[in-house]
Structure formats: structure tokens, C-alpha cells
Design brief:
Radius of gyration: 21 Å
Shape: globular
Distance between the termini: 47 Å
Structural class: alpha+beta
Number of strands: 21
Strand content: 25-35%
Largest sheet: 7 strands, mixed
Length: 391
């Protein structure tokens, strides 16, 4: 599995049925929607550019020629494509074989093969990999793995020096449900090895809570299929006069169609974003009929990526929400999948998207209206209360 974080992709009919703009996982499938893994440290901040200083637009025709020539010579078209993408400097480019891409597609339904845990680099000096979430009822939870445990090795490979995406790929494995994975774990000075059996894990990307009569908290972990409609239903059924706290922290993206539908819960039509494909600018609109009067605060952080940033930018530029938290990740490039001669699929950068006000997100992120690193949720509720919602 190629390592890489969230991709913004315009899917053509040659890859899946119907043209659909998506923001999708690449290397973080194993921990599903909640991971929010970042690219490798040595790649952070880089952006593919042409010699003139303009952002590079990938030469898909040249890639296809390279893959076709490799296949004609009896070599691997996928390997040739990976080498081509690597040389191109395309930060977000990735290549999948058929099985990997099929798993990638299934992940958009909100399910994945894995052990039910999320991991991230710690803020400690050693930068180790730490368990940040354990899904109830999953293999990791059943084995007693806890939040805060350190992952020292996966299947005998030390995590030191690996990106989170690579660790995630090892957790996911290649053999599907029923296969096993060995974890070397440290907790409070104790170290042991735990063998887990992978399962097909279903995720719930939307959770709704009502801490009081005047507050509805909608937590969106990722924009997989059906999420937009669920956000609209949560807003539609919220008590009259209640404010909404839309929590997008750690949301690494998903289907941008779903992000647009979610925007429609709060907007009465109008522009959500514009994006370009090989120089041609295209608009993305919200549906009519959203709730434009209910108080709304959006919680964001550095793990808010791609489709979640697109939604954040729309709500901020349209004056619909007050954003609280920290600056988002800054993933605003557009990838388009291309099917290669051997059936593998390459995701290639072809353009970038912008907010309704024309702001570019890629490499910059979206700054919150009110910065808040510590106790951000508490501050967001205070702001919501001041807007007329919340207790």
C-alpha cells in the first residue's frame, strides 16, 4: 500500500460509475476515518511546482506511456508508474494495484480491515507511535490494548523511523479478515508482544449528542457515504432554538459530495468551493433549503483535512459559522485517478480547490476565527452560547 495521506480526487467514468469529486484515504485505510495521519516529516510543506513557479499539473499521458512500455517489455506497469510518480515530485500522487484499489473503494462505505485502533506520533522527544483511540468491541479492545500504549513494532518491524502511514499499512496487512498481526507494546515500563486477529471493522462517522436543551454536538469523523444526509437530519431534528457545535477535529476528509451535502444543512444554496482540473475552473454548489438561522460553531484543528477543510472554508467565507480551534492541515490539491494498462490505478495531481472567497487551502490551511488549542471545545461552547445557542 503506498503511503500518503488524504487525496482530493475527481473520479472519471473510466474508474468508477459517474463523475464524483472525492477526498479519500491512501495510506491511512487501516485505521479508517478517525486516523488523520500526516505525510512524512521530510515531505511536509513541499509542493510540486513547475520551473516557472506555478503549481505542477501532472502529465498523465506520459505516465500512461511509461506504464504501457513496461507492460510491453514484460515488466510491472504498477512499478513503472510508482517510479514515474516518485520522480515527478507529486506530493500526493499514489499508485494502487487492483486489490488495493478495491479495498480503497470499500473504505468509502465506512468499513475497513484492521484491528480497531488509531495511532499517531507523540509530542515527546523520541517521537514514538502511540495509540490514540481504541474502537470498542474491536480486536485491539478485546486484547486489552489501551489509549496511550506505545507501539514499538508491528510484525517485527520497529516503528522507529516509520511514518504513521507506514505503521497503519502494516496494521492493515494484505491478507484480509482473519489474518494475524503481532504488536510489540509498552505501557508504564512494561513491554510485551500481543497477537491480534484482523476483522472487518465498521465505523460510525457521525455521532450526535445533546448535552443540554440548547446544544447539539455533531461530530463528523470522516465524509464517507451517507454522512451528508445524516448531518442534515441531525440539524433538521434539533430542538428549536438549539445551537449546533460541528466538530471537525481530526477529520481527514472523504467524499466531497458528502461534504457539500453537509454544507447544505446550513446554507440555502450558493457556492461551496471552486476547483480546477487541468486549468478548467468548476464550481461546487450547496443544495437549497438549509437552516440558515440556527447558531453554528465549527471546531477545527491541524487534523482537519481536505473535504473537512472545504466545508470549513465554505461556512467561514459565507459568514455562516464561527470557527474555533487551530489552523487546519492545508490539503487542497485535486487528484484524478487513471487506470493503467495492467489494471492498476494511479492518483495524480491535476489541480487545486479554493474557498468561495477564492482563498487557496493547499499548503496554507484555514485559520480559525478564534484560536484555541487547549480547552477548545469549552471555548467553542462559550461562543455558541453567546450566539444564542447552548447553555
Amino acid at each position: 500500500m503506498p503511503a500518503g495521506p488524504v487525496l482530493l480526487c475527481l473520479r472519471s467514468r473510466g474508474v468508477v460509475r459517474g463523475a464524483v469529486l472525492t477526498l479519500v484515504f491512501a495510506g491511512v485505510l487501516a485505521t479508517a476515518a478517525a486516523t488523520g495521519a500526516l505525510p512524512r516529516e521530510d515531505d511536509a510543506g513541499r509542493e510540486p511546482r513547475t520551473g516557472s513557479g506555478e503549481r505542477a499539473v501532472f502529465d498523465r499521458a506520459a505516465l500512461h506511456r511509461a506504464a504501457a512500455e513496461a507492460v510491453a517489455d514484460g515488466k510491472s506497469g504498477k512499478q513503472a508508474a510508482e517510479e514515474f510518480v516518485s520522480r515527478s515530485g507529486d506530493r500526493w500522487g499514489a499508485v494502487y494495484d487492483r486489490r488495493e484499489y478495491a479495498e480503497f473503494e470499500r473504505s468509502l462505505d465506512g468499513a475497513y480491515t484492521g484491528v480497531g485502533l488509531s495511532a499517531a506520533r507523540t509530542s515527546a522527544e523520541d517521537g514514538g507511535v502511540e495509540v490514540t483511540r481504541v474502537r470498542a468491541g474491536g480486536p485491539a479492545a478485546k486484547a486489552g490494548v489501551r489509549v496511550g500504549d506505545r507501539l514499538l513494532a508491528v510484525d517485527g518491524r520497529a516503528t522507529d523511523g516509520l511514518s504513521v502511514s507506514e505503521v497503519v499499512s502494516l496494521l492493515r496487512g494484505d491478507d484480509g479478515p482473519g489474518s494475524t498481526v503481532s504488536l510489540r507494546i509498552r505501557r508504564s515500563g512494561l513491554t510485551w508482544t500481543q497477537t491480534l486477529r484482523r476483522e472487518r471493522v465498521a465505523t460510525d462517522p457521525v455521532t450526535v449528542s445533546r448535552p443540554d436543551e440548547r446544544t447539539v454536538v455533531i461530530r463528523v469523523a470522516a465524509f464517507s457515504k451517507g454522512v451528508g444526509a445524516r448531518v442534515r437530519e441531525a440539524v433538521r431534528t434539533a430542538p428549536a432554538g438549539a445551537g449546533v457545535l460541528l466538530d471537525l477535529r481530526g477529520n481527514p476528509g472523504g467524499l466531497v459530495d458528502e461534504a457539500a451535502v453537509a454544507a447544505s444543512a446550513f446554507l440555502d444554496g450558493g457556492l461551496v468551493a471552486t476547483y480546477d482540473v487541468e486549468g478548467e475552473e468548476r464550481p461546487l454548489y450547496a443544495e437549497r433549503g438549509g437552516d440558515t438561522g440556527r447558531p453554528l460553531v465549527a471546531l477545527i484543528d491541524g487534523g482537519t483535512m481536505s473535504a473537512a477543510e472545504l466545508l470549513t472554508g465554505a461556512l467561514q467565507d459565507r459568514g455562516r459559522a464561527v470557527t474555533v480551534g487551530s489552523t487546519t492541515f492545508g490539503k487542497g490539491s485535486v487528484q484524478m485517478p487513471s487506470t493503467l494498462p495492467d489494471g492498476s490505478v494511479a492518483e495524480l495531481t491535476v489541480g487545486h480547490y479554493r474557498t468561495p472567497a477564492g482563498r487557496e487551502v493547499d499548503g496554507r490551511g484555514i485559520a480559525p476565527d478564534l484560536p484555541a488549542d487547549d480547552r477548545a471545545e469549552e471555548r467553542a461552547r462559550t461562543v455558541l452560547s453567546g450566539l444564542g445557542g447552548g447553555s
